[in-house]
Amino acid sequence: MVAIIGTALHWSDVLVLLLYFLLILGFGVWSSCKNRGSVGGYFLAGRSMHFIPVGASLFASNIGSGHFIGLAGSGASSGIAVAGFEIGAIHWLMVLGWLFVPVYMRAEVFTMPQYIKMRYGGERIRVYLTCLALMLSIFTKISVDLYSGAIFLQQALNWNLYGSVIALILLAAFFTVGGFDLGGLTAVIWTDFIQTVIMVVSAFILMIISFVRVGGMQQIRNLFPYAVAYTTLHNTTECGVPNENYFSLIRSFDADLPWFGIFFGNGVASIWYWSCDQVIVQRTLAAKNLTHARAGCLVAGMLKFLPLFLMVFPGMIARILFPDEIGCADPDVCYEVCHSRNGCNDIAYPLLVLRLMPHAIRGLTLACMIAALMSSLTSIFNSSSTIFTIDIWQRFRRNAHDWELMIVGRVFVMILVGISILWIPIIRASQGARLFDYIQAVSSFLAPPVTACYLLGVLWKRINEEGAFWGLISGLFVGMIRFIWEYSYTAMPCQPGHLDKRPS
User: Fold this and answer.
1) Tally of structural domains, the chain
2) What whole-number distance in Å separates Cα of residue 59 and Cα of residue 41?
3) What kind of membrane protein is this, topologically (predicted)?
4) Which of 147-151, 383-387, 456-460 has the highest mean pLDDT?
5) Cα(471)–Cα(129) distance, rounded to whole angstroms?
6) Angle (CA) 372 373 375, round 5°
7) Is 26 within a domain?
8) Residues 197, 281: Cα–Cα separation, whole Å
9) Cα angle: 68, vertex 71, 76; to 5 degrees
10) What radius of gyration, in Å, describes the C-alpha atoms of the chain?
11) 215 Rama sector, left if φ>0, alpha if ψ -120 to 50, beta otherwise
């Protein structure tokens, strides 16, 4: 029997949360006094950042609440193979530091579309990539972070999902528009550094408590195959039964997460994410020189080993400790547990926090989740506003003052948030039980032509603007067909007698 601490927030939890907010707000106001007088200072932190905050910001911008929810949920569902995405990112960070960053720094650009215009000439590729980058921010970043953060608040406070989303938006707006975003990228990077420390420390505490509670690594191997709900035990279906390769990081070609697909097939989307995406590349461009940018990539690479232990293993432990909830297979039971008929894997991490963590430390872990969400959202907001103001707004207002660009950037962030909220029901209906699957799928549908455009642009002098543009258009056409096809159908719950009628 698992000893469960009351899930209601204690006064000490609330106190820790308030102290956290005051710390972050104060730090943001302090850092906003630096590098705020120009567009270069606002959007690239005056190109003066040390490698440690650069590496921490790369990690924090990548690890949002979607990772805590999604990686733990995939670990609870399928085992450790999902960590291959995190470990595989290490060598793509090296590609960023040693192949792409030197080119970007020599070009002295603010944004990735700026580089594309410089490399290929013309305007149509730059406009295309700007619009696609903003679309990907909506589909794979803002909406995912809001949804995953809302899952956590829903479990912690028993709020309605969309009420939780509104609360998160107000909180993000408080910090982003009214708080540390006043200092632009300088404030964002330094805040990322503080929040990375908070994330790692609190997640490490929960990991230790979880391992002690379950009895260690060997007990995870022994107990995970039997972590099934009582409804599964009383029927003959395989719904809700853990993956038989749960402790295998390298799986066969016909498995759910084949090693070849993770390390090579996913590499196409990974090159886009780590080397061509504005949110990530902007951090390295803020480094004081190339050496610090590369060292920042190394720091982020070392930190990418942590999710296996801080998120995936705790997700597996949550299923062992709470099999009737995490491992539910009956759609009606799942709906009672987590308001989703497709499964409840993604509540694994919130349940651990709320049921195992002692008071005050639980508040620190809640702060960790909010830190992950705020860090990710503020990074996306800053980078998206950079792209819009410099690559689109200045096309129409070539003589716009710096203050005008900063105001326009903040207004545009509000528009992005509104569109992202409208997309949340699609995420909930299609991949609610495996959030991390959704993130990887959308990137794989839309990112490959962008990867080809950047990679060939850096490595092959003969590629020209016309070939690059039509390659991007044809790639987007194929990817959008797959994207629309995938999310036109709702994922079917695993239930005896119910056939999945979606196209294979």
Assistant:
1) 1
2) 22
3) Multi-pass membrane protein
4) 456-460
5) 12
6) 65
7) no
8) 21
9) 115
10) 22
11) left
Position 143 scores a pLDDT of: 86
DSSP SS3 for 49: strand
CA distance 374 to 369: 9
Q: CA dihedral in degrees (479, 441, 268, 290; nearest 10)?
A: 120
Please give the angle made by the CA atoms of 47, 52 and 58, to the nearest 5 degrees.
Answer: 75
- CA dist., res. 122 & res. 220, Å (int): 57
Higher pLDDT: 30 or 109? It is: 109
- Determine what percent of the chain is predicted with pLDDT higher than 70: 84
Q: Which residue is listed with tokens 């032509």?
A: 449
Residue 49: phi, psi to the nearest 5? -85, 145
Structure-token pair, residue 399? 């003589």
Higher pLDDT, 267 or 31: 267
Coil, strand or helix at 121: coil
pLDDT of residue 501: 61
Quick one: tokens of 76? 């609870």
Is residue 111 classed exposed, middle or buried when 0-12, 13-18 and 19+ CB atoms within 10 A define those classes?
A: buried
Give CA–CA dist 220/480, Å, rounded: 41
> CA-CA distance, 210 to 314, in Å (whole number)?
6
Long-range contacts of the stretch 157-166 (C-beta < 8 A, 24+): 157/9, 161/339, 161/428, 162/421, 162/424, 165/421, 165/424
Max Cα–Cα distance, the chain, nearest Å: 71
Asked if residue 148 belongs to a domain, the reply is yes
The number of beta carbons lying within 10 Å of the beta carbon of residue 238 is 11
CATH number, domain of 132, equals 1.20.1730.10
**Of the candidates 56, 141, 22, 191, which has an alpha carbon nearest to the alpha carbon of residue 423?**
141
In a domain, 120, yes or no: yes
Please check the confidence at residue 322 and state whether its pLDDT lies above 90.
yes
Q: Looking up tokens 């590629």, which residue turns up?
A: 463
Residue ranges making up the domain that contains 288: 33-487
- Cβ distance 31 to 180 under 8 Å? yes
Inside any domain, residue 268:
yes
Tokens of 382: 């800053």
Residue 366: pLDDT band (50, 70, 90) is confident
Q: What is the DSSP string of 202-217?
A: HHHHHHHHHHHHHTSH
Residues 90 and 435: beta-carbon distance below 8 Å: no
AA letter at 224: F
CA distance 381 to 397: 21
- For 207: left if phi > 0, alpha if psi spans -120 to 50, otherwise beta; the answer is alpha
- What angle separates helix 124-136 from helix 435-446, to the nearest 10 degrees? 170
> At 289, phi and psi to the nearest 5?
-160, 180
pTM: 0.84
